[in-house]
Amino acid sequence: MDFELRRAREKLDKEQRERKERAKLKLDRERKAKEEAKKQRDAIEAAQRSRRLDAIEAQLKAEQQMGESLLAGRGVVFYKILEAVPFQGSGDKIKLPPSCFTELSDQGAFDKGPMYFQLSLVHQEGSSATKDDDKENNRTTHSGVLEFTADEGSVAIPPHVWSNLFPVDAPNIPLVEVRYVRLSKGTYAKLQPDGIGFSDLPNHKAILETSLRQHATLSQDDVLTVKYGELTYKLRVLELKPSSSISVLETDIEVDIVNPGVESERTDQYVLKPLAFGASESGLVEEGNYMYYKFSIDDDTWEKLVSDDVKIEVKIDAEANGGDTDLYVSKHPLIFPNRHQHEWSSHDVGSKTLILSSNDRNLGTGTYSIAVYGFKGTTKYQVSVHVQENSKHKVGQQATHSSSMEVDTVECRNCKHFIPSRSIALHEAYCSRHNVVCPHAGCGIVLRIEETKNHVHCDKCGQAFHLGEMEKHMKVFHEPLRCPCGVVLEKEDMVQHQTSDCPLRLITCRFCGDMVQAGSSAMDVRDRLRGLSEHESICGSRTAPCDSCGRSVMLKDMDIHQIAVHQKN
Question: Where is each Ubiquitin fusion degradation protein UFD1 N-terminal subdomain domain found (predicted)?
Answer without folding.
Answer: 90-182, 185-260
